[in-house]
């Protein structure tokens, strides 16, 4: 498996990395050029309660992430540079809302990339959307050109079947891209371009289904299953991809994005600092039974499974709603401090997609490490790999925040990499590496750092009818 922290700009161009691994040649789908990655796009008319309205704003930055998962908690004590640590085993519950994650028996790799803006692949995504739209127009024209009601019915059924086949190809295409990325055969840039084209195509197919449904309603004796098919096409999106896209639409760059893949599994996470939100989306294709048949109790089981998998969300939930059809159910649960969406496979299936939006303020300081050096008190509130880490710098003498200080991160034996600057409150949110790391605050000429910050074990959702949170 690869864990790739990625910074995306308005079409990302990857400059030489300071650490990481070699990537094989470009895939046939992306070509061998240096055009950057751009994240997926949804239809602007789509309604998504997990999607934020209005433009997002990000900043160019660099994230250092790491290899070899160290899923160990912190311990009380003081290290050689005077760092103290709060290692409570009973953290504030908001931090420990469960997460869907990759199986725990996974090796990881790391890539550190410096990115700059470039308009390269944007036209490629628009080309994919335009091509799909043109095919939609051709399909609709073919239906409308039928000479009889019977012929129109046959053409409508054939057009729906074509969309169904296209969805199956999108599923295989996404799986192939994730697997190639996990094997090191597809770069992070190439992966995002592929995901973007898949999402754009899925949106166009959903639009085609809307028109086909309207035409079927006008044609006596015609019955199509467009609702279930359109619902299945909705899985090719998520809050992290939407966030990146919206920043691009606003003409700015999305902030850092954490990427983790293994066979048929992808984990994406991001921090929307302007809106104070942590975004997370996880796809577990290994848990999706695409042949499962739905039944009358499917939605109720999906809701029960979701609330059982995320008990602290259930404790804080304001309401919940489900929408399901044909062996697939979506569950939306707004809760105090955030919003959760899951997709649950039918039959004896389980949660295979997780979307989370969470207020950064809901993450506690239960795994805190701090130090005082050179007149600066530095505090690092650690979390699980890919989770949000709060770094705070305060002036010891004045008690005031140290703003505009440069923050660097060094994972393991890697070199330090600049990840951003503190704001007016002396704070910067970063995404956690997956191995012990050092965080340094540079307020020239003063320097202070916290060493050996250890990411904690992710609070994984338990398997069905199990209390074991070390889910795989």
From TrEMBL:
InterPro entries: DUF7094 (IPR055520), DUF7096 (IPR055522), Fn3_arc (IPR056397)
Domain named DUF7096: residues: 3-252
Residue ranges, annotated region (Disordered): 25-93
Pfam family, one: Fn3_arc
Start-end of Basic and acidic residues biased regions: 32-55
Fibronectin-III type-like domain: residues covered: 369-445
Superkingdom of this protein's organism: Archaea
UniProt domain DUF7094: residue ranges: 257-363
Protein name: Uncharacterized protein
Organism, scientific name: Halopenitus salinus
């Amino acid at each position: 498996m690869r864990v790739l922290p990625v910074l995306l700009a308005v079409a990302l161009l990857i400059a030489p990395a300071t650490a990481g691994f070699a990537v094989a040649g470009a895939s046939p789908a992306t070509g061998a050029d240096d055009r950057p990655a751009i994240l997926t796009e949804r239809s602007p008319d789509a309604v998504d309660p997990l999607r934020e309205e209005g433009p997002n704003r990000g900043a160019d930055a660099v994230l250092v992430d790491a290899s070899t998962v160290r899923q160990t908690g912190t311990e009380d004590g003081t290290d050689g540079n005077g760092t103290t640590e709060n290692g409570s085993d009973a953290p504030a519950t908001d931090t420990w809302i469960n997460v869907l994650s990759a199986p725990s028996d996974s090796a990881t790799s790391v890539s550190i990339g410096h990115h700059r803006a470039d308009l390269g692949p944007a036209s490629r995504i628009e080309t994919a959307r335009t091509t799909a739209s043109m095919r939609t127009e051709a399909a609709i024209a073919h239906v409308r050109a039928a000479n009889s009601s019977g012929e129109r019915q046959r053409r409508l059924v054939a057009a729906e079947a074509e969309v169904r086949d296209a969805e199956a190809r999108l599923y295989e295409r996404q799986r192939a891209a994730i697997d190639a990325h996990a094997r090191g055969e597809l770069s992070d840039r190439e992966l995002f371009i592929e995901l973007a084209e898949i999402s754009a195509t899925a949106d166009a197919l959903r639009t085609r289904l809307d028109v086909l449904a309207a035409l079927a309603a006008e044609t006596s004796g015609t019955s199509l299953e467009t609702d279930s098919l359109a619902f299945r096409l909705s899985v090719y999106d998520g809050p992290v991809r939407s966030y990146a896209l919206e920043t691009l639409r606003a003409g700015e760059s999305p902030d850092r994005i954490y990427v983790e893949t293994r066979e048929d599994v992808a984990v994406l996470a991001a921090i929307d600092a302007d809106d104070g939100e942590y975004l997370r989306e996880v796809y577990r294709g290994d848990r999706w039974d695409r042949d499962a048949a739905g039944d009358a109790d499917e939605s109720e089981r999906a809701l029960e499974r979701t609330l059982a998998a995320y008990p602290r969300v259930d404790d804080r939930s304001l309401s919940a709603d489900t929408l399901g059809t044909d062996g697939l159910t979506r569950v939306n649960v707004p809760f105090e401090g955030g919003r959760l969406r899951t997709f649950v496979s039918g039959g004896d299936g389980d949660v295979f997609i997780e979307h989370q939006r969470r207020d950064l303020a809901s993450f506690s300081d239960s795994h805190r490490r701090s130090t005082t050096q050179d007149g600066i008190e530095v505090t690092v509130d650690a979390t699980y790999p890919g989770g949000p880490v709060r770094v705070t710098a305060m002036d010891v003498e004045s008690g005031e925040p140290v703003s505009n200080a440069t923050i660097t991160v060094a994972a393991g034996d890697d070199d330090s990499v600049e990840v951003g600057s503190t704001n007016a409150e002396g704070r910067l949110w970063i995404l956690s590496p997956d191995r012990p790391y050092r965080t340094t605050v540079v307020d020239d000429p003063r320097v202070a750092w916290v060493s050996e910050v250890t990411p904690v074990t992710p609070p994984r959702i338990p398997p069905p009818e199990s209390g074991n949170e070390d889910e795989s």
